[in-house]
Design a protein that fits this description.
The complex is a heterodimer of chains A (375) and B (325). Chain A is of the alpha/beta class and 375 residues long. Helices cover 41% and strands 10% of the residues of chain A. The model of chain B has no long low-confidence stretch (mean pLDDT 97). Classes of the chains: A alpha/beta (375), B alpha/beta (325).
Chain lengths: 375, 325
């Protein structure tokens, strides 16, 4: 018997706004003007913040910091497609996503300054802390959305992962569950082309990462990740698909990590300046600005005002970070269990005793108050 | 003898072991052109090429699982797991396979692989980059676990690990990568696995330790010495197998033992050392054995790490308590 074709899948790519600012009118999403302006403002603010944070690290005022330079569209836009009760789980390169959902930049500075009090998301949001061992959050995200589905709530879960993380076994297991149980989870692969020093083409022999979706019965799409309109349309449709009970979506958003992996990395060791330069020309922020200008809702004057306000806001967040009272070492014992078992009670006492001895050398007369719960 | 740091010593050991045996391969994330995030494999990609220094996709379990197959098939894989906090994902292979295959196959298949990973804290690293997971490994039968604290041992132990016919976990104390300097013989040599190193002789109290904490103990011993207390420092170097003779010898000499380390104290490797002492040398003790480890909570972000990992002060206070027991 001849071989029969039993399934054919097509891999599509969504592009709406080109680098020169021209737009495909058929695909152009209807985004309310206030949302568009909010999107642009946040993309500009996070870019300025990113630059500031990088400098703070270089000056020894911040710990290791992962820049998001060049990924402003994939950071800010997806978060704006959610309702507060939808789950959002960014990656460690996710300060843009948290900011877009309303978290103060102060907390990103605290976290990357090595202070656990930097984990503080707006109360009304279902935001979750990111995972540092990459990909370990992916199955959890399936569970977050599954819970909403089992309770018959309309919420979806959106998470990000890198091109590198799509190689982890966790990705396979997460998509297996999400597909099998038709879970309303959205896996946004922020393909920035570099997993530290490993380029995308050495990560997988697959032509696209979007096509991985089909192996699990999920919907997959490749998206121009530097095109804010395409990201908006793709994520909004994925959210709707999830709310309608049509299961998971994998979006491969192609963007580019213009900076180092983190401030501890030196990307000049393994990639060419020419490649970086070519991607600078596809800038997501500038592209959206051109779109707004063409729509006559943006001009140089408004840009100038935005930059001034953004810089003032960022300066004020940096000042708040640097004036934040030092942590009390005893804080680390809070929030480990609902009720602390005896070893923690003993050990906390031991630390308290030793801190009393060290008060002089710690440079404080009295220790700051303890935060968090410790029964 | 040339002086070098820990990174340079491991690098030289890897290089010479690869020159001596063309079955030796390095696999890991960013180990190639980038030379590893700590530069431990710097220059090896250039010297040996992409078929021997292999940049893998981002998949730790893939690195270790495929290395099990490579090892059984006759290669000598040296896997790098980039950070200690990424090791738990490979435990499936470590616990279920690498230490069991020799026995399960009744000696037919063996797994001569080396699994390298940074270890410990105190470098202001991000979350999950400062862990001390040695006890998960020492609890697993069929594998060896080593951790050097000097450049000389770093080179000798990586060579020994590669030459060993069985799987070896090789921890690299990251606080020592550049801070520990010392003379390192130029020739290829192996430091025997299973032998401790007496880092300092003393007679009143024994400080048993491994990894970066050995240096904290040496600092504590200096201070104690100034106060008229003679402390001996034993660097275990090899946790599995443990140098029982060296442990018992120091117990017999001082009668007072502190076991200091970076991992959370409960169920740490220190518990095993303490248990052995109580089983085999109870009557030599003049005070209870004391474990000085980190608190039984997760490693906090780096602003508080120095209040979490024991410092010399905690070791000194414990030593004084034993002396006044």
């Amino acid at each position: 018997m001849p071989l029969r074709t039993i399934e054919e899948t097509k891999i599509q790519r969504l592009e709406i706004l080109s680098p020169d600012g021209t737009v495909d009118p058929e695909l152009e999403p209807k985004i309310p003007e206030d949302v568009l302006l909010d999107m642009y403002r946040k993309m500009v603010e996070i870019r300025l913040f990113d630059e500031k944070a990088f400098k703070l690290q270089r000056q020894g005022r911040l710990g290791t910091y992962p820049q998001i330079l060049g990924q402003e569209a994939t950071q800010i836009v997806p978060a704006l497609c959610l309702k507060p009760k939808d789950w959002m789980v960014p990656t460690y390169r996710g300060q843009g996503a948290y900011y877009a959902r309303g978290m103060r930049l102060l907390y990103s500075l605290l976290y990357w300054g090595g202070d656990d009090r930097g984990v503080k998301y707006p109360d009304q949001n279902n935001d979750m802390i990111f995972s540092i061992p990459v990909g370990t959050h992916l199955t959890q995200v399936a569970g977050l959305a599954w819970g909403a589905k089992l309770r018959k709530e309309p919420w979806v879960a959106l998470t990000w992962l890198g091109d590198g993380t799509s190689s982890k076994g966790d990705f396979h297991e997460a998509l297996t569950f999400a597909g099998q149980f038709r879970i309303p989870a959205i896996y946004l692969i922020e393909n920035n082309h570099w997993a530290i020093s490993i380029p995308r083409e050495k990560q997988s022999a697959a032509t696209t990462l979007a096509q991985k979706a089909w192996g699990y019965g999920a919907f997959g799409l490749q998206v121009d990740g530097n095109d804010a309109l395409a990201v908006y349309r793709a994520v909004s449709e994925a959210v709707e698909r999830g709310r309608r009970g049509e299961g998971p979506t994998v979006l491969e958003c192609e963007t580019y990590r213009l900076g180092h992996h983190t401030t501890a990395d030196d990307a000049t060791r393994y990639r060419s300046e020419g490649e970086v330069e070519a991607w600078r020309k596809k800038d997501p922020v500038l592209r959206l600005r051109k779109y707004l200008e063409n729509k006559k809702i943006w001009d140089n004057e408004r840009e100038k005002t935005l930059l001034q306000r953004a810089e003032a806001m960022i300066d004020s967040e940096v000042a708040a970070y640097e004036q934040f009272p030092p942590p009390n070492p005893l804080d680390m014992f809070a929030n480990n269990f609902a009720v602390a078992p005896w070893p923690l009670i003993e050990q906390r006492l031991e630390l308290e005793e030793s801190l009393k001895h060290k008060k002089g050398e710690l440079g404080m007369l009295e220790l700051p108050p303890v935060e968090g719960r410790f029964p | 003898m040339p002086e070098m740091n820990l990174v340079q010593a491991i690098n030289q050991g890897l290089r010479q072991a690869m020159e001596a045996d063309d079955r030796v391969l390095i696999l890991g994330e960013d180990v190639g052109l980038n030379g590893g995030v700590f530069r431990v494999t710097d220059g090896l990609f250039k010297q040996f090429g992409e078929n021997r220094v292999i940049d893998t996709p981002l998949a730790e379990l893939g690195i270790v699982g495929s290395s099990v197959g490579l090892a059984i098939s006759g290669m000598r894989p040296v896997c790098e797991i980039q950070f200690d906090g990424f090791l738990p994902s490979v435990l499936d292979q470590v616990v279920c396979h690498i230490g069991r295959i020799r026995n399960r196959s009744r000696g037919r298949n063996t797994v001569p692989l080396v699994l390298r990973s940074p270890h410990g804290g105190l470098i202001h690293a991000p979350e999950h980059h400062s862990e001390s997971p040695e006890a998960y490994f020492t609890h697993t039968p069929g594998i060896k676990v080593v951790i050097p604290s000097t450049p000389e041992d770093a080179k000798g132990l990586i060579v020994a690990a590669i030459q060993d016919p069985d799987p070896v976990i090789y921890f690299e104390p990251k606080a020592l990568y550049r801070a520990a300097r010392g003379e390192v013989p130029e020739k290829l040599y192996a430091t025997p696995i299973g032998k401790a190193r007496l880092a300092r002789e003393g007679s009143d109290v024994s400080l048993i330790s491994w990894g970066a904490m050995v240096h904290t103990c040496l600092k504590a011993a200096d201070t104690l010495n100034d106060e008229g207390i003679s402390a001996e420092v034993l660097d275990l170097r090899s946790l599995a197998p443990l140098d029982l003779d060296a442990v018992l010898a120091t117990v017999e000499k001082t009668g007072r033992v502190i076991i200091a380390h970076e991992a959370p104290n409960t169920n740490s490797f220190a518990a095993e050392v303490s248990a052995l002492i109580s089983e085999r040398a109870l009557l030599k003790l003049q005070a209870p054995v004391r474990r000085v480890g980190s608190w039984d909570i997760r490693m906090p972000l780096f602003r508080l790490e120095k209040h979490y990992i024991p410092d010399a002060d905690r070791v000194i206070r414990a030593a004084k308590q034993l002396l006044s027991f």
